[in-house]
Amino acid sequence: MKKLAITCFTALLLLFGGISSVQADQYLRVGMEAAYAPFNWTQDDKSNGAVPIEGSNQYANGYDVQVAKKIAASMNKKLLVVKTSWTGLIPALTSGKIDMIAAGMSPTAERKKEISFSESYYTSEPVMVVKADGKYAKAKKLSDFSGAKVTAQQGVWHVKLISQIKGVKEQTPMGDFSQMRQALSSGVIDSYVSEKPEAMTAENANASFKMISLDKGFHYSEEDAAIAVGMRKDDPMMAQVNQVLSGISASKRNAIMKDMVKAQPQAKKSSGTAQPSFFKQMWVIFQTNWRQFLKGTGLTLLIATVGTITGLIIGLLIGIYRTAPKAKNKILAFLQKIFGIFLNVYIEIFRGTPMIVQSMVIYYGTAQAFGISIDRTLAAIVIVSINTGAYMSEIVRGGIYAVDEGQFEAATALGFNHGQTMRKIVLPQVVRNILPATGNEFVINIKDTSVLNVISVVELYFSGNTVATQNYQYFQTFTVIAIIYFILTFTVTRILRYIERRMDDDTYTTQMQVEEN
User: Fold this and answer.
1) Which of 140-144, 191-195, 271-275 shows the lowest per-residue confidence on average (mean pLDDT)?
2) Do 212 and 143 meet the contact criterion of CB atoms below 8 Å apart?
3) For the sheet containing 116-123, what is the strand order?
4) Is 374 exposed, middle or buried (0-12, 13-18, 19+ CB in 10 A)?
5) How crowded is residue 458: how many other Cβ atoms within 10 Å of its Cβ?
6) Rounded distance, CA 262 to CA 273, Å?
7) pLDDT tens for residues 455-508?
8) 448 has pLDDT over 70
């Protein structure tokens, strides 16, 4: 039975989590966002020289991918892209989750403190992206953006350029380019700072965007404009990587970029003259990407379900322990106190810190500090479980104290020990009393799995964001995702309420039978 359970659990992880069974020495694992065309993007097939994305049935392509393929070939390895959020790239590298970064990253002084960089393999220039029919569509110099709401990607050198615009209304930096495009199309911002290839992509893929090359533009260093491969400090592969990059001539680099600009994903245009309705576009997106949504939904449910059940068990165990009487033996009493302090620290830490921070620390921190590499799906389940356990322990403790004290006294009079009292008398009542709170935690976990995209777990939000970066229809795509989340939480809530009613009916029936007898 135990082997069967393990086999079933592993099968679920393979089905929904996309665990990779490849050996690290067969592949060069390169981290990138796969959402920054034409440098890197996600697509559904291996056309135009695309390569597989780890733990996914999708592929990555772009200028960074083509350069990384040459590096991998020189090492007699296959390229495997590890799709990672921008903020997670350097932690993924330093923790050993990936071998190098090829993500349009500039070798800034701040980054050089953490990692090393190869020689440059592309140099670009900063430009502005605006709405084609907007107020700033005819801008030609920086001063024309006075009063404009401008932003840039968080952690990128473009952020520092915004202050060069006099009178600008600088906005909070955003997580990635998909967020900035969405903000621009909705009018939240007037413009964002980008690099020329990305701006060309946005302009070509969506007619509502326009690239502005400034006559009197930004002042910046050549180091900032350069793009290089990020590697760990003192990595022995650095010399080989530089040798490969130096062998790619300037004309060849331009040719690769030209090819990738042509191959990049384009927004689907209607064949008719009339623009399809908003809901029609949503339906087309769902029909085209339902398999990807299904996989993300499956992994979201897997993580939320296992995490909630495990967290409930943790909470019950902690609740029982914290309400146990003090041991009479002094040594046992001391150990009991120490362990109680440890549990209090655990509860306060995981209740007092955001799950997104816990995800970064557990997934990347354990690998960097202790050399322990955890599969990201398993890490996600562990994160949700221990986070839920911290909350459930307090809920369980409250549920135990809510049981009438006379029942404890009666159990003691009958000769029950603490474990028997809990198992036979208290916990059945506690489980019923905390069922609404447990259901609430389940619903929260379904929604909070979205923060796990920071460690590249391919849950529902991550899947939706990937689709949005492919079709440039952000509102439509995320409306579909919102509907799926609502269906999940609504269904779970109704099922739990049905269970509560059944338990109440069973309790009432039992009481009536006792009274009749």
Assistant:
1) 271-275
2) no
3) 78-83, 27-32, 100-101, 226-231, 116-123
4) middle
5) 29
6) 25
7) 889 899 989 988 888 787 888 999 999 999 999 999 999 998 888 888 776 655
8) yes
Cα–Cα distance, 82 to 436 (Å, whole number)? 39
User: What are the phi and psi torsion angles at 149 (to 5°)?
Assistant: -90, 110
Burial class (CB in 10 A: 0-12, 13-18, 19+), 376: buried
493-498 contact pairs (CB < 8 A, 24+)? 493/439, 493/443, 496/435, 496/436, 496/438, 496/439, 496/442, 497/439
Dihedral angle, C-alpha 135, 141, 142, 145, nearest 10 °: -10
Q: What are the helix (H) ranges across 36-88?
A: 63-74
CB 209 within 8 A of CB 202: yes
Give the whole-angstrom CA distance, residue 449 versus residue 462: 10
Residue 12 has pLDDT above 50, yes or no: no
7 Cβ partners below 8 Å, 6+ apart? none
Shortest CA distance to 101 belongs to which of 23, 189, 32, 53?
32
Check whether the bond before 354 is cis (ω within 30° of 0): no
Burial of residue 281, with CB atoms counted within 10 A of its CB: 0-12 exposed, 13-18 middle, 19 or more buried? buried
Q: How far apart are CA 157 and CA 90, in angstroms?
A: 15
Question: Are the C-beta atoms of 333 and 479 separated by less than 8 Å?
Answer: no
Q: What is the DSSP letter of 276?
A: P
422 DSSP assignment = I
| Lookup: tokens for 69 | 């393929």
* Its pTM surpasses 0.85: no
What are the residues whose beta carbons fall under 8 Å from the beta carbon of 69, sequence distance 6 or more?
A: 49, 51, 79
Helix (H, G, I), strand (E, B) or coil at 1: coil
Instruction: Kindly report the average pLDDT of the chain as a whole number.
Output: 87
C-alpha 417: how far from its chain's center? 46
378-390 mean pLDDT: 94
CB 491 within 8 A of CB 442: no
Task: Quickly state the pLDDT bin for 513 (edges 50, 70, 90).
Answer: low
| pLDDT tens sequence across 64-85 | 999 999 999 999 999 999 999 8
User: In the prediction, which pLDDT does 372 show?
Assistant: 81
